[in-house]
Amino acid sequence: MDRVALRGLKARGHHGVFPEERREGQTFVVDLVLGLDTRPAAADDDLTKTVHYGVVAEEVVAVVEGEPVDLVETLAERIAQVCLKHERVEEVEVRVHKPDAPITVPFDDVTVTITRSRV
Q: Is 98 a known active-site residue?
């Protein structure tokens, strides 16, 4: 299976379990690895035979900016489902970064990574 990766998609969301997270929002960063067969697109040099990663990026940002959820895990699942709606995408790895998570000790990042596929 071939891979198309999008790294560092940034969007402001209002996700979290604390009222201040919902009220103030924060930046989330999303990395995607889309699994698909790119051979048909490459053979014909045809965008319609692959995944349009620009469209995927816009859809993912819309999810992050959309309806708030409590858990980063839920956000990652919603992103995965949006990616799998694309006919050519057979599997997706989603990593959601929450670099401004409300943690009381020094840290660099919090991430949740999930892998989903068509079954």
A: yes
